[in-house]
Backbone:
C-alpha cells in the first residue's frame, strides 16, 4: 500500500472507502474523512484500488460515485453460477462474472461495498463464497 492509496475497509459501521496513511505495529492507519483517522488491523482491508489520491475531496467524489452504483448491483445471476462451486471467489472473479471486461476501478469498488451487504455471498479471508440455496431462500 502506498500513502494516499484508496482502500475499501471494514469499519464498525460497515465497508467504506478510505485513504491509506501508513502502517506500523500491525495496524493500518487510514483517513476516513476530513480530519478523521482510524487504525485497523490489516485483515480489515477488503480491497486495494491502486489509485492514489492527494486529498479528501477526490476520495469523496469517488465515494459518491461508488455508493450511488452499489445499490443497483444485483448478484443473483452471479450467485446462480457460483452456488454449486465450493471454492471462494476473489473480488476480481465476481467482478468479471458480473461486468465482464468492463469492470473499471469504480465498478470494482462499488462491488466490494455491495458484497459486504448482499445475501448471496459471505466474505472471508479466502474471498467470497456463495451462500447455500437454503440460506438464500430464508
Residues:
Amino acid at each position: 500500500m502506498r500513502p494516499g492509496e484508496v482502500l475499501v475497509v471494514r469499519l464498525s459501521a460497515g465497508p467504506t472507502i478510505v485513504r491509506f496513511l501508513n502502517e506500523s505495529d500491525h495496524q493500518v492507519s487510514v483517513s476516513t474523512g476530513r480530519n478523521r483517522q482510524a487504525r485497523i488491523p490489516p485483515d480489515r482491508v477488503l480491497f486495494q484500488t491502486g489509485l492514489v489520491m492527494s486529498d479528501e475531496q477526490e476520495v469523496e467524489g469517488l465515494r459518491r460515485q461508488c455508493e450511488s452504483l452499489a445499490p443497483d448491483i444485483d448478484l443473483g445471476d452471479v450467485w446462480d453460477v457460483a452456488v454449486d462451486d465450493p471454492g471462494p471467489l476473489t473480488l476480481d472473479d465476481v467482478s468479471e462474472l458480473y461486468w465482464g471486461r468492463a469492470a473499471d476501478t469504480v465498478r470494482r469498488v462499488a462491488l466490494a461495498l455491495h458484497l459486504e451487504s448482499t445475501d448471496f455471498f459471505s466474505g472471508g479471508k479466502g474471498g467470497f463464497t456463495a451462500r447455500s440455496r437454503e440460506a438464500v431462500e430464508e
About this structure: DSSP finds five helices and seven strands in the chain. The helical segments are 56-69, 76-82, 91-99, 105-115, 133-137.
